[in-house]
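Tutorial handout. Part one gives the primary structure; part two gives the three-dimensional structure as tokens.
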Amino acid sequence: MKSRTLRMLTISQFAIVVTLLLLTLGNEFLDLPHYFFHDAPTLYSQRIGEIFIELIIFFIITVAQVLLLRNLYKRIRMLEGFLLICANCKKIKNQEEQWEHMEKYITEHSDARFSHGICPECTQKLYPDFYHAKQRNRK
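Part two.
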């Protein structure tokens, strides 16, 4: 999951939490049941206690929700981590069922950057003279 997607999920989650908080506080300060359902008006001193209890419950639920969603994000990221890779050329099959080079795929789907090197086995296979000269210099 790209950081942009995670950022959008976090922003939408934050917007929902703020909306619920404002609705809860608005209900208590304005005594909405009195206006909408013609209940007996609630004294302000009673509403202060209700506000305090509702805020405590609200924050407990919010913390639980954030922790749960954080674990779900981690699990989604892990599940998205399974990639179909060609055993021969090492290309990766993307969501559009197209095969693309590993470097391109990883660069587009993560914050990783690439730098190329060459391992000792490939050096020996592709550049045997250089490899043997380097081995002699090490001794």
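Part three, for discussion. The longest strand covers residues 92-93. The chain has a mean pLDDT of 83.
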